[in-house]
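pinning this so it doesn't scroll away 📌
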Amino acid sequence: MSSDEAHDEQYDGEENEDEMQVDSNEAENDDNEEGQSNPKKRKMDFGADQSEAKRAKKKEQKEEKLKKKLMKPNAAMVAELLYHWENFRQRDVEKTKRIAIMDQVLQSCKGKIMDIIFKSDACRVIESVLKLGLLRQREVIWQEIKDDIIVMSKNHYGHHVVVKVLKYGSKEMRKHVLKQFNGKVVKLCKHRDASEVLEYLFAEVADKTEQLSLLEEFWSPEFGIIKSKTPRKLDDILAAEPERRPSVVKYLHETILALLNRKDTAKAAAFTHSIVHEPILKYLQLAAPKERSEMITFLSEHVARFLHTKPGSLAGVLCVGYGAAKDRKTITRSFKGYVDRICREENGHVVLLKLLDATDDTVLTGKSIYSEMKKNLLEIANDKNGRLSLLLLLCPGKRYFPVATLEQLKVFEVPDAEDPSKMVPMSKKDADKRRTELLESIWDETKEMVLHRAFSLITNVYGRDVLVEAIKHAEGEARNEMLAAVLELCDWNPEQISKSSKYSSGEKKKFHALDFLREEEPQKEDILVHSLGHRTVRRLITEVDGFDALLMAKIESKLLSLATKPYSSWVVFDLARSEQFRPRVLAALKGHAKELAADANNRASQFLAKFVQNPSDTSIFEKPSNDDAHKEATPKPDAKKVETPTKKSPAKSDAQPKKQPNSAKKK
């Protein structure tokens, strides 16, 4: 057999196999048509049937739920109210149309407001009417709910309506709500929903007299029963009646423990309410040392929640100052995640300062407190209150800290357990040693901030304090690098590339604690002619040894042009005050007195002009007044162009008549 014949037979065999396979597929399809289903198709059909069954079941459940909802009382009315609510609550609705729709709402629910006000959806309609409605519409709602204020305040949905009444209601409505709370303040303060209404009433609505009236009920139960016409502070009450002190302390102890023993989920939120901060403070001030230390143990984990008010911050300082080492450890850990906010708080930053200054465990404080500050160190340094956390380590004292804050930072003392007549300090470690150890945990980041973000610190009224004190504290090579970073910005040329900033070229870097270096640096300027930057330079000239010599070496060739500019002239003036550089300044300005005196509004250049004309007269450098130091060159209107009106005597004949009121003009 030839190879061609063998190839033909092989092809015929393959063709026969293909035909047999096609026949088998057709037979399988025929079987499927006769009733034997394909497994794949059967699986798909089963899935489709199952999904249809689920849809049908959900539809039935939805219909049953709707039927049950319609079976509830006032269901049809609530549905109508929600329909109207969707129409009038939008911002783009015309005022007349909104008022008309709200009238329909009030007409539909007339006499039934108290029946629907405890429902999760219907109460929102009433809240919107109180917020957007007219006074007469609010009055309609008020007439139906005014006798059930306490009941509504205890309800999860109803208490929102009471808050809206306090926020948008009339003065009479607010007084009525306040009257309803009289005698029930302490009891309602322990309730989850009513405490929110009480807090809004105390913090946002009540005046000082009404606040004292509410606080009186924390001192003794009888103040809730018998209300005095003139409420008094606790200090005034105890000064007039000293025998009340034991009973007041006992009642405060019971009240605070009741707040601590709340079983609901809002126990922690109770301490955020400002109305309880004053009672906590008074208890810590009046209680005996043993009772006070026990209460501090209970309060230590909640300090972060009540330090945002002035009484709360003072109570927090007492918890830190009189607390044991274990209590301070608990307080430190409770600050986790909130350090950035606390150090910038108007009142809360004092508690953080006390914690840093009183805790002997500097390792824990450095890891827990300063490790969080590293991420936003630049923002903290440029903040009025935040910078104090850094200045506490760099320059503690009266220069940056108010007297009241320094009083709180003093070491607290308690009677010795063995000898009560002997007072023992609560902090044992030396203050200077503690600050040195804490500074080690934040010094590297502070140095990097000064090197790479010097312009942001120099041109900030608060950040410059951190920069100056950091330079004064630095030594050796670190000090030279910081001074070089500042000198680089003096007589700054926008075209030159910063040598001190490693990350100014936009190169990618790995994540590390200095997150503020990821942010774009602001556009740099010459700090000598900057309104805030030149003040920092003047401070460095007078406070940092050696900076004036470095600055003089850099700008000596440009002293004349700098002396004629508004802000930089004060820098030249400070250099001329130094006997070391006065001859060099005189040599650079000699013969240019007219140029210096040309700008009459530039006080510094005027002083320099007098100095050039009469170098022997150095009286202008001896004791510059505060006005000369701070009232620096600011543009003023030209005296020739501005006409100052002259006062005319009313006795003269050309005296102008008095202006008539608007009513007379209309007539």
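📌 and the second one:
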Amino acid sequence: MSPVNESETMTQQPVSTFGLYSAHPETPANIMTTRKAFNEYFHKEPCVYSHQVFQYAAKIFGALRHDSKEDNPYLRKRNQELSRNKALQIPQIDFPSAKDQRLTFELAFATLKYQLLLEEMLMDCSFYSLFPEFKEDMSVVMVMLYDYQHRKFQPWMPLPGKELNPLFVEIESALMTCKTKLHASLARNRIKSSALNIEHLLPLAVQTNSRVGTSLPVCAWVNQHKTSISAVTEQFRDEGFLLRNYDADEYLLGQSFWIDIHCNDLLIFPSACRQHLTQHPLVESGHIIIQDKSSSLGPQSLKALMSDGDDVLHVNVASGLTTAHISSLMQDSGGIVWGFGIRSEEHMAQVKHKMEELHAKHVKIAPEPFLDVEPEDSRFKNVKVILIMSHCSKSGISNPVDFIVSEGEDMSILKDLSIGEVDRSKVGELVAKQGATLKHALKFPRVHAVVYTTRSTNAAENESVIIKAVEYINTLQQRKMPYRVVPPVLPLGESDIDQRRTGIRDRYLRFPMSDKNNGCFTAIITREAQDPKEAARDVLARAAALGLLGSDNMDEGAEDSDSALRPRKKSPRRSKSTPHRLQGVRTAAMATRNTASVNTGLKQSTAPAKRKSPKRVVAFNSTITVPRTKQNLPAAQKKTEQGFLKHPAPFSGPT
């Protein structure tokens, strides 16, 4: 028998790597597999929630929890008691830091999403039968159980510098006693639903929102009270960021950013930069403000509709960030920003502090509700544009935690978004309030434009509210110049105009929820002033502000506004059998056709001369309501542009 080489003997024996034995040779692939198994087995999940965060999250969860399962008699009785107690309010929490605030909302929202699963796990292990002393602390048990399973049922380790709550220590110990049964219950639920992980146990709508919410880009507008757009972009370039050209079909990656096409003071960063930006000196000093893009569409639309010296009115100030954004945009206009929507004295103090912190100027916050204000109030005699950030269902929001932290909105939206559905009874109440708010705004006598925005994808809260309110006011007031819905006043790209994609449809600007933005809706309602002289001045002022008139033309127009109206011909008398509303629609349609003829330089040989719309109306429709720069127009429009801007095909037709 030939002797066996010692090296050959070694390869025939099992080898050990990190204490785990393998029957295969120690090849690089096997070593990597063994290391991965070792790391997974001994990996310890980090503890991110302190006992104080548990306490805050338990309060929010207790106020927003869903109805419990009917086959649990104790939970059913408890839920009935809470339903009868309508005095239960969402708690007002004074968070010690922004980090604790975000962690609290994240934990409360996650517990709401998995509430039914967590309750079933507690029932399977008879937790409240074994520990009846914790029945009165159900909310704390629920938030701690979610964190316990999220840490793969590993022991909770105290965070350095954080105080311990004796009650929470006892609950943690009780949960660890039921560890095996809790783990088995979770496994049974996953097997029953064929779920690869716990996320697949959620409704499909909630899964989609969670996936989309994590990939949303970070938006930040430049506070021009403290800095300039060029200074901010230059600083990010010096830090290694690449300023790219906007492309609706591409995604931002790495250290890159671009300036938004719709809002020229809004910077867009990749989602991976969120943590870096929240701690950036420009954010901490208030030079740039992180806020969702849906909050910037309204202020930018308002800016395009106002003239120098005009006052504006903002309904629903919320955290005050949007109000400060309006002030930043109109810093050189000399107008006043009126804010409404204060809920309490504490809220008033918070908003005023935010205005001082961001150096927002010429802002006045009214303490009374907007619906209690008289439209003829002398304080608002110079208000020309109103922005309504409507209270809505927020059905277009994919990441409610970021939205609440940045917008200061009511945290009650966590309840509906945690199940992916909106209570229909609540939608009815919201629609009634939205309609009343919009109708009241349209009653202000000197207002020539109202911007209405929501974060809802529900047509009942959007188009239906607009149509009913405009029809009601026009019927009530019977003005010569009625309100009408007009196309967006923001710069639009080709993807926005293309009806097969997102953007403008039926004169409304809609953005559905996607991995690039939250869902939102924007509508512009305008009318010309009742006084012809004032109407002419408004038209010329807005045209000059948009760069459609030179300075010389503006001076001449200001001096000779009366003469500009002299060639205006009287409109043909309408037939007695034709309703006033239909007559107005036909007149608007003729104005659109005449506008097209002016733009293309063609004559309408079939239309009699007496039916031409007044030049003043044509100028307002074609150049003022929808300002667009030449570079943003499609190629087909650039060829036909001759002094006026022509609407693309979707804009034509009556409102």
